[in-house]
Structures are given as C-alpha cells and as structure tokens.
Amino acid sequence: MGESDPFVEIHLPNSRQQEWTNVVQDNRNPVWNQIFTFNVQPEDDLIIFYVQDYDIRKNDMIGTGTVELKNVFDDGKFDEWVTIHADGSSTGDIYVVMSIQNDTTFSSPIQYPTGNGSTPYMTAVGDFNKDHAVDIAVTNFGTNSIVSANFNNDRYVDLAVANYGTDNFVIFFGNKNYTFANQITIPTGHGSRPHSTTVGSFTNDVNLDTAVANYGSNEIVVILNNGNGTFANRVNYSTGSASPYSIGDGDFNQGN
Q1: Is the domain of 70 the same as that of 157?
Q2: Is residue 244 part of a domain?
Q3: Do the Cβ atoms of 243 and 209 come closer than 8 Å?
Q4: Which of 82, 100, 133, 212 could bond to 221 as cystine, CB 3.0-4.6 Å?
Q5: How confident is the model at residue 196 (pLDDT cuts 50, 70, 90)?
Q6: Burial class (CB in 10 A: 0-12, 13-18, 19+), 58
C-alpha cells in the first residue's frame, strides 16, 4: 500500500448499510481489529470493502474487495483474506472474519440515569459488548434522542442522549467490561429543548462530532469532538422562525 493513512469503508449496497474503520496513520501494514454488526436483509447478496487513504481534502482509493454473502450463510462463517483490486490489478489483501448471529433473546436491562426530569423515550442499537450480536439501548420518556458511536476512539461503543426535559446533551462512554462510565453533560442552552441528534465528522478528522436540533430555541447546535473524551464549546446556528424537530447529516454540496 505504501506510506498512507488507510481505513476501510464497509458497505452492504442493497440495503444501504455502511460502517467505517478507524484511520491508521503512516502505516503500510495496518491492523484495524474492529468489529461491526450489520442487520443483513434478504436483498443483501454482497458485502464490499473500500480501502482508502485518508486525506483531509479528498480520500484516495487504494482498492476494492468483495465477498458474496452466500459463502457466509452456507458455512455459517467467513475467515479468509480478501484481495483488494484497483484498475484490474491487485493492490493488497485484508483479512476479514464474519459470522452469522441468529440469537434473538435479550438479557435483563442495565439502567443508567440520564438526570431528573430528562424524560427520554427513544432507542439506539449497537454491539455494546463485542459479541457480534446487536444490542438495544432504550431511553425512557423525556429524553428525545439517542445515538450510538465511538466518540473517544477506544474501540468501545458509546451512547449520546439529547434530553428535551433538561436542555442538555449527555454522553455515556463504553468501558472494556461492557458497561458505561458516568455521564458527562453538555448544556444545549436554556429553553433549547433538544429534540434530535446526529453524528458525523464535521471537521474532516477522525473524530465523530455531534449536531443537535434545538426545538425550543430554533437552532442547530454543533458540538465538536476533541477525540479524547472531551468536547469543544458548542456552536449555535439559527434556523430562523423554524423549530427543528429532526436532524440528519450528509455531504450535500459534494465538498468532501
């Protein structure tokens, strides 16, 4: 691969699911050792691995590898090297392990307080204990939004909750024993009534940032991630007379 900052973008193209590994900087033999969980749909017949060289302006494609999911279903697992191709030639290999998880039972819930009066009532999913099975996080009435992501780059899934009732945004950091650390609370402004949140890298670095729709103050709040378990001061953007109820992110102007 040469000296590069490689990462892998993983796609189930038919059901439009995707995940990304971390970026390994200045490495010609990267090791990601990350686990991702996909909810495979009947229309999914292929999984695609896009190996790229991270660049702050525009990522460079190193190569693409594919695996037919029929092979995984037939054997119950996949444990092989996948060849990466670009322009008809091999540019390397990545080692991929996949398995099928059909268990649909759940353990007893573990409860984490989100604060008096927060009143959450949404859900998020993720592989919180690294067992290849999708877990569920449920917020009770009063918290209006919850998302799962890796905010501090430690390989463990974290949770972020927008609390409509208490005008704040709360992060629970995942631990290596598959529990969650004490919450850190980020105010979203008096009377802001945060109603929805989304996660993305808004500054084109490797850290996942958050944006929150403040229904009560007619604003979008962006909270940039420092990548070490702390966050920068929030930046507020007015939505005029509109009271935002939901929020999403994407590269709408193709600006990369």
Answers
A1: no
A2: no
A3: no
A4: 212
A5: confident
A6: exposed
- 111-115: Cβ within 8 A, 24+ apart: 112/172, 112/180, 112/183, 113/183, 114/139, 114/140, 114/142, 114/143, 114/161, 114/163, 114/170, 114/183, 115/163, 115/166, 115/168, 115/170, 115/183, 115/185
Phi-psi region of 165 (alpha: psi -120 to 50; beta: other; left: phi over 0): alpha
User: Do 71 and 38 share a domain, yes or no?
Assistant: yes
- What is the average per-residue pLDDT within 138-162? 74
* E strand map for 106-193: 123-126, 135-138, 143-149, 158-163, 168-172, 184-187
Range of the domain at 72: 6-99
R_g (Cα) of the chain, nearest Å: 20
Report pLDDT for 112.
60
Higher pLDDT, 51 or 74: 51
Q: pLDDT tens across 105-130, in order? A: 545 555 566 566 555 555 566 666 65
Name all contacts of 199-204 with Cβ < 8 Å and 24+ positions apart: 199/147, 199/149, 199/160, 199/249, 200/249, 202/249, 204/56, 204/256
> Is the model's pTM score more than 0.85?
no
Domain of 48, CATH number, reads 2.60.40.150
